[in-house]
Amino acid sequence: MVQRGVRNPRPRPRFIEPMECRRVTSLPEGDDWLYEIKQDGYRAIAVVDGGTAVLYSMSGQDYSAQFRTIGFALKNLNQGNLVLDGEIVALDDQGRPSFQELQNRRTSKQPIVFYVFDVLHHNGRDLMDLPLSERKRFLEEVAGHPSGSVRLNPVFRTALPPLVDQVKSLGLEGIVAKRANSIYVPGRVSDAWQKHRFNREGEFVIGGYVASGTNFSSIIVGEYRGKELHYVKRVAAGFTPYLRQQVFKELKPLITSKCPFVNLPEPNVSGHGLTAEKMKDCVWLKPERRCELEFVERTNSGRLRHAVFRRLIS
Question: What is the CATH number of the domain that holds 117?
């Protein structure tokens, strides 16, 4: 049974519910902040107890069978009993995190690693009440020498603007800022940890929407590749009630019976595809209006991840 945040005079290593970052539009600056690269993967808590190593998801699900090489590397740290907080990440050919490779890990040949950024317990002692700067020094001692698939997430004590420029130039997802004196608060979102993504922007053609009541739940967008319109995303995020109504008013005159996308319907492989069955709820539009979207990245097939609607383009 998974225990959450249990403490006693001589605690055992166990699952500890992760502390979470607050999402912000701009990162804090100053000497009391440490900066880390925001990795794009699966957050995980690693519990090393004797000869066993278990990886838990944020909700306490056992990840171990899916990432055996990481478990092997954790045991090979040879640092006794540990509880570590980090991110499971698949790396592309340039060594950058690739969420798509992580999702396709059963067939991908790319390396999968565990980037560690905090230590919460060591050999019968909980460390969560120590300031982050002290936990970082302790982490250097117990995991500072890479062991196969386990690596330390880099920490930067530097001015923020040049770091932002460098992270953007490398095409990385974002930065996490953490107060150097912050303690670890399990299961809580804290202002002491703040994250910011550097999303991409682009213009896309609106070719339909998914009907919902007297309005829509999401718009269906694509892009021209040559003379053909290719579907790339259903976008539900970014709409306030007022904005949704205004967009719907602009799109209604464009309703048509013909699907404008050449790559629909999709096969039902992942469970998220726009299949023939799901297309029954779609209303198609003449591809005459464009919109601006913000998104994290593209998949290898050109699809958008974490897309957010920003505005219609006249």
Answer: 3.30.470.30
